[in-house]
Amino acid sequence: MSAHSQEEVQRQVKIYIRVFLALGILTVLTVGVSYLKLPLSIAIAVALFIAAIKSSLVAAFFMHLVSEKKIIYAILALAFCFFIVLLLYPSWHLM
Amino acid sequence: MIRYISKPHPITGIINSKLGVWCFLASEIMLFGGLFSAYILLRTGVTDWPRGHELLNVPLATLNTIILITSSVTMVMSWASLEMKNLSKYRLFMTLTILLGFAFLVVKSFEYGHKFEHHHFPSTNNFYAIYFTLTGLHGLHVIGGIVVNLYFLLFGIKMWDKEPKQFAGRIEAAGLYWHFVDLVWIFLFPVLYLL
Amino acid sequence: MTHNHSHEHELPFWRKYIFSVDHKVIGIQYAITGLLFLLFGFGLMMLMRWQLAYPGQPLPLIGNWFKESAMVGGIMLPEFYNQLGAMHGTIMVFLGVVPLAVGGFGNFVLPLQIGAPDMAFPKLNMMSYWLYFIGGVIMLASFFVPGGSAQSGWTSYAPLSVIASSGQTWWLIGMAFLINSSLLGSVNFIVTTIQLRADGMSFNRLPFFVWAQFVTAFLLLLAFPPLMAAAVLQLMDRVAGSSFFMPTGLVVNGTLLKAAGGGNPVLWQHLFWFLAHPEVYVLILPAMGIVAEIIACNTRKPLYGYKALVWSVIFLGFMSFIVWAHHMYLTGMGTKMSAFFQITTMIISIPSVVILTTMILSLWGGSIRFNVPMLFALAFLPMFGIGGLTGLPLGLNAADIHLHDTYYVIGHFHYVVAPGTIFALFAGVYHWFPKATGRKMNELLGKIHFFFSFIFINGVFMPMFILGLAGVSRRLYDPMQYAHAQPTQPLNVFISISAWCLGLAQIPFIINFFWSIFAGKKTDQNPWQATTLEWTAPSPPPHGNFAKAPVIYRGPYEYSVPNQKHDFWPQSMKEEN
């Protein structure tokens, strides 16, 4: 997204700072949770969940995906489809 | 001659470099996806996979996580500075981004050095093997990003005088790549170090 | 809008012809390099065929040219046979066919057909070619390292590839260059097709050639990276001693391998085939695109079923990502996974058949011109049909138990790629040669090339189905060591002689190609009277392609439109003719 007016960019900067703070808090959280010595499957779920939130914030606001064009969404959706296939097949192999 | 280098395409609404870098990032998703799928297959194939925090330096990696996230902020601020037509602020934030990138690599080299001192190598076991491979490939991507950013700080900046919009587009594209490198680390960190 | 001035008249020779950023020069560089690699890869196979026809016999005349590690007294060593096999496959697929089909034809034709002045990223385009060139040099150089080149098949299965000699490391590094070349190219093709179409060139007015290249670019973009990941992992296993693919307790030559173990050879297969299956569609899609263009032009009527073609190629591209494990039926997978991949494999045959059928139906009622491009394009249809049909028993687990890793597989995939894709590529060369050079290739030499190639190529591959059904395994230095294979030996002789004759049949093409560049009959800009945009540019087109950016008024195949003076109506012609 190309923000052109000065006010738009200033608003964007405020968002970047807020996202930065959120990311810092989430980082502390994910490290803190790891000290709780949860059972492995729950630890995995929590860690990946927090990572998903952090990465969504980076993608949505730093990478401007929240206001991106449809063509970009389409290409990313396609990549994600096959990414999921790549991640899932290792567990299929046991079936 | 070649259209839509600075002016967005009327239908897609974007310039060529932005579409190009997102296509490249789509391929990078598949690259790291391939490595993550290898990790899953290897880990689920054995019963004695160690917990990351037992073998790896969590505080150091947490520091690196903060470093990389901060560098993402400075990167997007360097782009925002160009949008606000402030070249000196662009220089400041881009320099910070590059320095933070170097800091990440320095911390990483301490980590690796410590592992090698204690005779932990990729050949030791598959935990270390995938740890070194995943963080190593990620580190190579950090180096690549630093090189690109250095180019845009020192040499590419000449374009700002003649083609400011095109230059801002290039910085945005470089930023997208840098954020993606940060994004990969956001997953690498918990998967390798905390689980 | 930025101005990219064409400084062509100011460029020195090395920037105009060597380090050019013009898509047409880059396309020709890819095409000629690709053709040379095809010839070289063919040569490797001709050597293999000697050993298969006359096992253990010294190679006459040239046997002494090879060093002792390859041939002793002209008799081929098994290690060298394996090198020839692995490199024949690697070179044909990655250095020959794809660079010619995508790098060559795609680069040269696509920007012209969409009305663009060049690719979206000309400098990146140039880098793609040189990365390919370097990868090719690395692959060729690997023959000369101690132990020779890679010799674990083009598929480089672990653990054999991990313990193989240093040539395998060169293969992995070469592949890294080729993969990155391909990646940059695919980004260029996708952005160019989406962003740089001329005004009026909507997606449903695109020539099918462009659609085929567009889908191919997505396959390359998304399927290659997992192989890059796998190559990194195998490099780590070989160079850093990791055990990604090395199982615990592996014994090599009687001794336990000193590795940590805990790895899985099937992991390599998954990551490899995740690329390599879409790769075979990368091999066929551009060919289908070429054949479609040539059929429409030489039947003087629109392609039948344009919409079906477009939806089929998109569906085919998508499905190609979820069939890969049909190459792995014998790895011990469970019934659920096997059922999944059999179903997807059967489904993917549907769009293939739709594409083939629409092209055949396009012939109905046509005024067919049997020129050389059309002969090759017509031959493609039944040849691809045979290739596709023989894939069916391979795609079904039960039949594949008998046929896997036999000559039946070799027959199947060569039918699709050799009298399939390569014939389509020949058709494309004859078809677009006038556009690239301003001269036509010689028809008589072309027809000789076609007829003898067609006869001998069938002589090479048809008997392989019989060999495979008889249970003769592939990749064997001496298949006749097995009693069940011995009765089939005469077929091996027949195949080898056909292969050598096929090699001779390429001589008219090589002569024709180079001779016609300098002395071929000069043509105007549209010798085939075709409708697509490349034929409205001069032959050869200048830097920037079109003097004025074209505007598109109609679809790509407006042939024999009623009440028109001519039997073709170009896409960018405003008025009626």
Quick take:
The complex is a heterotrimer of chains A (95), B (195) and C (577). Chain A is built from 3 helices and no strands.
Topology overview:
The complex is a heterotrimer of chains A (95), B (195) and C (577).
Chain A: H1 6-34, H2 40-62, H3 70-92
Helix pairs in contact in A: 1-2
Chain B: H1 16-44, H2 52-55, H3 58-83, H4 87-117, H5 126-154, H6 159-162, H7 164-194
Helix pairs in contact in B: 1-5, 1-7, 3-4, 3-7, 4-5, 5-7
Chain C: H1 13-18, H2 23-53, E1 71-72, E2 75-76, H3 78-114, H4 122-141, H5 160-163, H6 167-195, H7 208-240, E3 251-252, E4 255-256, H8 265-299, H9 306-319, H10 335-361, H11 372-395, H12 397-403, H13 407-437, E5 439-440, H14 443-469, H15 489-505, H16 507-519, E6 521-522
Antiparallel strand pairs in C: 1-2, 3-4, 5-6
Overall mean pLDDT of chain B:
96
* Strand coverage percent of chain B: under 5%
Largest sheet of chain B: none
Order of helices and strands of chain B: HHHHHHH
Main CATH class of chain B? Mainly Alpha
Q: Could you tell me the CATH topology label of chain B.
A: Four Helix Bundle (Hemerythrin (Met), subunit A)
Q: What would CATH call the homologous superfamily of chain B?
A: Cytochrome c oxidase, subunit III, four-helix bundle
Strand arrangement, major sheet of chain C: 1-2
> How many domains, in number, for the residues of chain B?
1
Q: What count of domains describes the coordinates of chain C?
A: 3
Total E-strand runs of chain C: 6
- Which parts of chain C are unreliable, with pLDDT below 50 for 5 consecutive residues or more? 1-6
What proportion of the residues of chain B is helical, as a percent range? Answer: over 70%
How would you portray this structure in words?
The complex is a heterotrimer of chains A (95), B (195) and C (577). Chain A is mostly helical and 95 residues long. Chain A folds into two domains: 1-63; 69-95. Chain A contains three helices and no strands. In chain A, helix 1 packs antiparallel against helix 2. Chain A is flat, with a radius of gyration of 18 Å. Chain A starts with 5 loop residues before the first helix and ends with a helix. Chain B has helices at 16-44, 52-55, 58-83, 87-117, 126-154, 159-162, 164-194. In chain B, helix 3 packs antiparallel against helix 4. The model of chain B has no long low-confidence stretch (mean pLDDT 96). By secondary structure, chain C is mainly α. Chain C has a two-stranded antiparallel ribbon. The chains are: A mainly alpha (95), B mainly alpha (195), C mainly alpha (577). At the A-B interface, helix 1, helix 2 and helix 3 of A face helix 1, helix 3 and helix 7 of B.
